Amino acid sequence: MSVSASSITVDDKRVELPVKSGSIGPSVVDIGKLHGQTGIFTFDPGFTSTASCESAITYIDGDKGVLLYRGYPIEQLAEQGDFLETAYLMLFGELPTPAQKADFDYRVTRHTMVHDQMNRFFQGFRRDAHPMAIMVACVGALSAFYHDSTDISDENQRMIASLRMIAKMPTLAAMAYKYSIGQPFVYPKNDLDYTSNFLRMCFAVPCEEFQVNPTYARALDKIFILHADHEQNASTSTVRLAGSSGANPFACIAAGIACLWGPAHGGANEAALKMLMEIGTPDNVAKYVAKAKDKNDPFRLMGFGHRVYKNYDPRARIMQKTTHEVLKELNIKDDLLEVAVQLEKIALEDEYFIEKKLYPNIDFYSGITLKALGFPTSMFTVLFALARTTGWIAQWAEMIQDPAQKIGRPRQLYVGPEQRDYVNIAQRG
Ligand code: CMC
């Protein structure tokens, strides 16, 4: 499709709307001057037809099932690279040379410890606090601990804040987990790679040695790569909106974590696993598929459907393979996997799901893998947040450097009462 020129006529006044083209993907109609010239706004709840910014980080073709980070297909990055390489790519736009990679790994590794007073901050939480609640609070609180990297006009401080968050998210996530199970915090160990270090901080105890299983570490590293960015999704848009006011980066990422928590977004992996547990056995699958199709039943198949992917979620394909690899390594015959396979099969053959282009998304399989790796469901969204932090930071940094950047300020279609006069309380009734 090509769009070369566009215009709109409002009250007989014709306004030319410039069309902008990206490197790939749909063009956009620039409506930035529409209100100034005509007095009307556009209306697009849920932003289904609205591009909110220019970005050179992630590209998705939802119809073809394509996901590229800085031009590189997700399949190649997940199969051949590692997570910190992806983080470098996100931040700097190119894959690192060996020397750049070694330097980046070193710098991230040297920031993994959190300020020791953060330990006391944790003690304020109820023992059974959801780890996402802890993450929202602790990441926001980093701005109270690292004043020397909150000046967003200073490029050097922006980079230090970025490295700090990439480095400290695994430490905070592991602490949130340890706190919830009443075990002592495990400090980072700098001779381990990023993901092995995280697994150790989660599953080691101080009284014995801990060996990280390389298959687990590789599987989790892949999960992190798959979750690293997804262009202007709800949480990323939240980070950009928060950042557009000039808020410090720690506060912006905390806002992103809050948004990610919802079951329609990052919380879907937790919800998908709970759903598989509720379905229980493959012979119940048909009943639940019928519930999902029933307009009068609010039940939805969690882990199915996506706002952008209307063919297949490419991340789901990689995730499905990783799930099988992990279960094989562990020699686990998981009933939930059988339920998932059966559910996927029935749903993909069903007219309702075909017609609405509803396919399994990444969350459909990631929950099974994370459970097999030993994580409780309450940690699933935390792991998503850990990985997505790289994307959020890259998007935030891109926004700060964009000369067209303004505070985000959507307008509305007002449907409330017209102006009316205040009535004293004694005369109301
Ligand atoms: N099960 C049953 N029906 C569904 C589902 C589902 N999972 N998803 C969408 N539909 C139906 C929906 O009822 C609607 O039907 P109709 O047109 O008859 O009213 C139609 O499909 C379109 O749905 P929508 O809600 O308008 O689509 P959306 O683009 O606004 O929502 C979604 C996308 C992901 C929120 C939605 O598909 C959903 O709630 N899925 C389950 C939650 C989930 O797995 N979320 C993870 C998304 S991937 C991870 C991430 O990026 O965060």
TrEMBL record:
Belongs to the citrate synthase family. Pathway: Carbohydrate metabolism; tricarboxylic acid cycle; isocitrate from oxaloacetate: step 1/2. One of its GO terms (cellular component) is cytoplasm. Pfam families: Citrate_synt (PF00285). InterPro entries: Citrate_synth-like_lrg_a-sub, Citrate_synth-like_sm_a-sub, Citrate_synthase, Citrate_synthase_AS, Citrate_synthase_bac-typ, Citrate_synthase_sf, Citrate_synthase_typ-I. GO terms for molecular function: citrate synthase activity. This is Citrate synthase. It comes from the Bacteria. Keywords: Transferase, Tricarboxylic acid cycle. The keyword Transferase applies. CDD domains: EcCS_like. It catalyses: oxaloacetate + acetyl-CoA + H2O = citrate + CoA + H(+). GO terms for biological process: tricarboxylic acid cycle. The active site is at H306, D363.
